[in-house]
Design a protein that fits this description.
It contains 17 helices and 28 strands. The protein has about 675 residues and is of the alpha/beta class. It folds into three domains: about 325 residues, Glycosidases (TIM Barrel); about 200 residues, 3-Layer(aba) Sandwich (Rossmann fold); about 55 residues, Immunoglobulin-like (Sandwich). Bound molecules: beta-D-galactopyranose and zinc ion (ZN). The site of zinc ion has 8 residues, from α6.
Length: about 675
């Protein structure tokens, strides 16, 4: 059984250190309050000396025993993420090939073709040995399958992959004419006479067939998932009682979070916001919200973050004072039940030796170590929050398959990017204090009062009807441009965009008019301020019942609608035919939120993040000066600093306040509580 409370720890790679260091490690773990570590993620070459060989696991036995004696539980990796040199040397065909035909070399990590039967067999053999040897170890709490699937090699274009793709297509389409129809191969003389002629979308003289590319993204996601599933099947068979996870990467395009999360008992994410980016905490909040949403009722863990700097940006900023604590507590506020770091002890050698860690090169008489220890103590105080839900009345929709289509080439504008648009709409909601779920467009949306739909480029009939039905039954939707433009095979839905939602939106789009980068047009209308402007995209729109809240006041489409609203059934559908400036975008969303009748947990000044988790209210001051928040008259316990607050709470620069449940003072004739 997992322990209660918020778990704390990180990736522990003792194989990089002489055994004398291990005792020091567990002593320091106790000092920091570490109770969960991820072990053996990149240890394959230390564990197995050749194909099918017995584990050389003596060192790992001793590590697990030591951790167990110290009361530290283990998220044990299957160790399959980086094949050892002997595997690539004897089977170079496992090495992945790029779209340009370049075979990648070993020497880094993740150098395997996801479709390679040789790799999969070797991985499954290793997992079986790991499960047999460690499945009953008392320190084992969780299995960590692979690591960041697809991170470096999201797709392989080798001949083995080509053959697997053909089999996948045969399965999907049955016969070649179906494929020809779905891919629109009458265009540019691409009609296939047999599946044998089909290739991966390798580099071609010009744009490869977009439907072929889309299917390759689906196929590649499936192949990576099949690697995960093959390992999981072994673990389920040998250790059915041990939960499994793997670390997702948040808004990482190649891997469909919905499909992957469905395969996990604990949903994990790695999150590396850039300390140098003043808005990084907003993107970080979105990743936390996404992971919570992917997990649904299951727990989610922050599996990796850096206590300080990373090593893989051109310039790797250190975290400022308190940033590690703030960002960690933000994840707890948004539902995380574990705060784990990459990594425990900073490596002395290798490509990540300049990546920060909980135990820095300089040792424990350091600012960073003191922050690590202090956070451990904070997490103990936050134990009452563990497992508690984070309610949300607002959702943004995200569908990976639509995202894959959205970002193919030869589109009206290369500037329409899924994550950027998502963040543009999430940011004003975050700043207003709304907690936002991320939902799949085919999900039951009835729990949400407001649903925001950023560039949902492709929709199938069921999905289109789901959203239409949501609005008819009283929901409020905000749909942006370049939504519902194609079906799931990337074929245009004809008759005026967005064909399935013309009735819902009360309009039809005749023509897209993307704007040159950096240019703006003026906006006027009931939601406009003097400075309101349109950016990135405009459209020639026929209004068919919708009311324009903003119209273009300059440019080639002057006078045309830019943001509209339309009553539909019991609800309302907003349409954003442009990306307004941030303040105007916030106005549009505020209008929609008030129409939906939703308001945030507390009114907060700028720079303060507010989240309600269970009975607890989290207030995080990301600003560099004091902020004040009215928390109401009732007294509330301060979980972190102790004491109580009521009325106006002062939040110093960077400070975090976690308030307990509102305490209702007993009235004059309140009954004496039973004893
Ligand atoms: C992650 C990876 C870790 C480590 C970390 C560095 O992508 O899972 O093993 O490389 O990045 O930031
Ligand atoms: Zn391949």
């Amino acid at each position: 059984m997992p322990r209660s409370g918020i778990r704390y720890g990180g990736d522990y790679n003792p194989e990089q250190w002489p055994e004398e260091v291990w005792a020091d490690d567990v002593a320091l773990m106790a000092e920091a309050g570490v109770d969960l570590v991820t072990v053996a993620v990149f240890a394959w070459s230390e564990l197995q000396g050749g194909p099918g060989r017995e584990l050389e696991g003596g060192w790992l036995d001793r590590v697990l025993d030591l951790l167990d004696q110290a009361g530290v539980r283990v998220d044990l990796a299957t160790a399959t993420a980086s094949p050892p040199p002997w595997l690539a040397a004897s089977h170079p065909e496992i090495l992945p090939v790029t779209a340009a035909g370049v075979r990648l070399s070993p020497g880094g990590r993740q150098h395997y073709c996801p479709s390679s039967p040789v790799y999969r067999e070797a991985a499954v053999d290793l997992v079986e040995r790991m499960a047999r040897r460690y499945g009953g170890h008392p320190a084992l709490e969780l299995w960590h399958i692979g690591n960041e699937f697809g991170c470096h090699v999201p797709a392989c274009y080798c001949d083995v992959s080509a053959a697997a793709f053909r089999a996948w297509l045969q399965d999907r389409y049955g016969d070649i004419d179906e494929l020809n129809r779905a891919w629109g191969t009458a265009f540019w003389s691409q009609r296939y006479r047999s599946f044998d002629e089909v290739l991966p979308p390798r580099i071609a003289p010009t744009f490869p067939n977009p439907a072929q590319r889309l299917d390759y993204r689906r196929f590649s996601n499936d192949e990576l998932l099949a690697c995960y599933q093959a390992e999981k099947a072994v673990l389920r068979e040998l250790t059915p009682e041990v939960p499994v996870t793997t670390n997702l990467m948040g808004l990482f395009r190649p891997v469909d979070g919905w499909r992957w999360a469905a395969e996990m008992d604990v949903v994990s994410v790695d999150r590396y916001p850039d300390p140098a980016d003043p808005n990084a905490h907003i993107g970080a909040a979105l990743v936390a919200d996404l992971t919570r949403s992917l997990a649904g009722p299951r727990p989610w863990y922050l599996m990796e973050q850096a206590p300080g700097a990373v090593n893989w940006r051109p310039i790797n900023a250190a975290k400022s004072r308190g940033q590690y604590r703030r960002w960690s507590l933000q994840a707890v506020a948004r539902g995380a039940d574990a705060i784990l770091q990459f990594q425990w002890r900073a490596s002395a050698a290798g490509a990540e030796k300049f990546h920060s860690a909980m135990v820095p090169h300089a040792g424990t008489d350091t600012h960073l170590w003191r922050e690590v220890v202090a956070l451990g103590a904070d997490l103990v105080r936050l134990a009452p929050v563990a497992g508690r839900p984070v309610p949300a009345e607002v959702a943004v929709l995200l569908d990976w398959e639509s995202w894959w289509g959205l970002e193919l080439d030869s589109h009206p504008s290369a500037e329409v990017r899924q994550v950027a648009l998502l963040l543009e709409l999430y940011t004003p909601l975050f700043e207003a204090g709304f907690v936002v779920d991320v939902a799949h467009p085919a999900a039951d949306l009835s729990a949400y009062a407001l649903v925001v739909i950023p560039a949902l480029y492709s929709v199938g009939d069921g999905t289109a009807a789901n959203i239409d039905g949501y609005v008819r039954r009283g929901g409020v939707a905000v749909v942006t441009y370049f939504s519902a433009v194609v079906d799931t095979a990337d074929r245009i839905q004809l008759g005026g965009y967005p064909a399935p939602w013309r009735e819902m939106l009360g309009l039809a789009v005749e023509e897209f008019a993307p704007m040159p980068a950096g240019t703006t047009d003026r906006l006027t209308g009931v939601l406009a301020a003097a400075t309101s402007s349109a950016r990135r995209w405009e459209e020639r729109i026929q209004l068919r019942g919708a009311e324009a809240l903003l119209s273009l006041a300059s440019g080639p489409l002057e006078g045309g609608a830019a943001v509209t609203v339309h009553d539909h059934g019991l609800g309302a559908a907003y349409y954003m035919a442009t990306s307004p400036d941030p303040a105007t975008t916030a106005e549009v969303l505020a209008h929609a939120a008030s129409r939906a009748g939703v308001s945030p947990a507390a009114r907060v000044p700028s720079g303060v993040e507010v989240v309600q988790r269970g009975d607890h209210l989290f207030l995080i001051n990301h600003a560099e000066d004091m902020r004040q928040v009215d928390i109401g008259e009732a007294e509330r316990e301060d979980l972190l600093a102790g004491g109580r607050h009521s009325g106006v709470a002062n939040l110093g620069p960077g400070e975090v306040l976690v308030l307990g449940a509102v305490e209702v003072p007993p009235g004059p004739d309140a009954p004496t509580p039973p004893r």
